[in-house]
């Protein structure tokens, strides 16, 4: 028996029927069986005594399913998710259950079940697959409006050789559906200590070195079990981050988190090992400091700081960020693109180091496509907000003809599903329709993509001063560190984005403003800090036009960051004390702090 794995599609709506017709014509002795594999992939087993027929079958499949490995993975995951979704509906989907059960060594095309009897509508199993496979089209076009039409950014990841490692026996840590186990990389065995965080990228675990227990590292794993994200997108992001880590570590050591290594696990997930930062990130540290700050006219209690003392510590965190950014720009020529307090980690000495290089970019060419990965408006430069607004309007206008076609296709799809499964409950049919509702006119989309990307709203989006986007991120971070509130936190994201866009279009506006009543005026983005020196410093950075923003080096030269106690040993001990919840350590360092 020979087999060919049905792992993707070219023109999904017609392929399976073409395969069915072709196979029936190849040989009278030809039998085809369907089976789900251990990884939920769907395989068609083709059995025939005629080797020439088998050759034709294989060639036919190769021609139709000649696609990249990454797209096969997307397709496999999509069909697996569809099967899982339908299987959870229980007895209501008895026809679908019959169909899925018959994947197990049953004759699909001849219409017989496992017992050799005529199965109830099993002859439509291939038609069910045809409808299900339509969902694949959904995976090839991004759901985000901009990604539907804009050409995908060129993959700039260079060839990387990543060693594959096996999970080893030993004590493991279970978090949700993922188990972190020991593994060995470059002759060193690493054992899990605890789970640290979870996000769109996957999980982060703390590991220790077996040969040196005091050597602690963080393992970031690009998986999707915990979050519904695109696996290939996560892996590409991991590869990009690895390459950027290598570039950064080769040029700067003291301003960025140390890169230890990377590996690929048996399931295809990618692991990135970095220096472990025991004192967390700057965002959380700043919040702790605000919680323990009292007015200058009040005596601080155990583990507390006066407002003036806290200001020195907070400015130290800002200076750490400016130093890291200056090193990144000056020594590597890279733009971070996601510069914020949460991406600055505090090492064992309480010094902030730059991390998370997944969106970083080298050079100053057009990087518009990279910016779509940055979520939220708190750190987004205003010039991007006005472009987002213009792009959205252009896409909405161009989408109108397509929306009409989508409605026609939806009506046709409902009719098709009703014919395929007449006895199925209406509610269940609607679920299949929703899953299989795809954008049918791929050729039209390709043409439309080119038309929209040539519009002025897109063609002018070439940023030659990309460093200045990071500078805005630094200014927005400084405001958050000093006040405990992010820019735009006082309103919904859409309104905040609109406010940013308006801010970028008018000269002479101040980002940080306020009046006696505490209300915004002059079109400002955030209220005053109630400290003239701080407001002046923030407005020095947060200018509407990117060309007017200072460099990171110029920010470091600002008198506000020249105070002798900023970055002192006492400040570092206060930071470590807050991390450890050690009031005695905080109080001792506070007593030695010079203002």
TrEMBL record:
InterPro entries reported in the protein's UniProt record: Kinase-like_dom_sf (IPR011009), Prot_kinase_dom (IPR000719), Ser/Thr_kinase_AS (IPR008271), Ser_Thr_kinase (IPR053235)
**Keyword Signal annotated:** no
Pfam families, from UniProt?
A: Pkinase
Q: What is the superkingdom listed in this entry's lineage?
A: Bacteria
Q: Where is the Protein kinase domain?
A: 190-561
Q: Which UniProt keywords apply?
A: Kinase, Serine/threonine-protein kinase, Transferase
GO molecular function terms attached to this record: ATP binding; protein serine/threonine kinase activity
Entry keyword Transferase: yes
Identify the GO cellular component terms for this protein.
cytoplasm
* Family annotation (PROSITE patterns): PROTEIN_KINASE_DOM, PROTEIN_KINASE_ST
What name does UniProt use for this protein?
Answer: Serine/threonine protein kinase
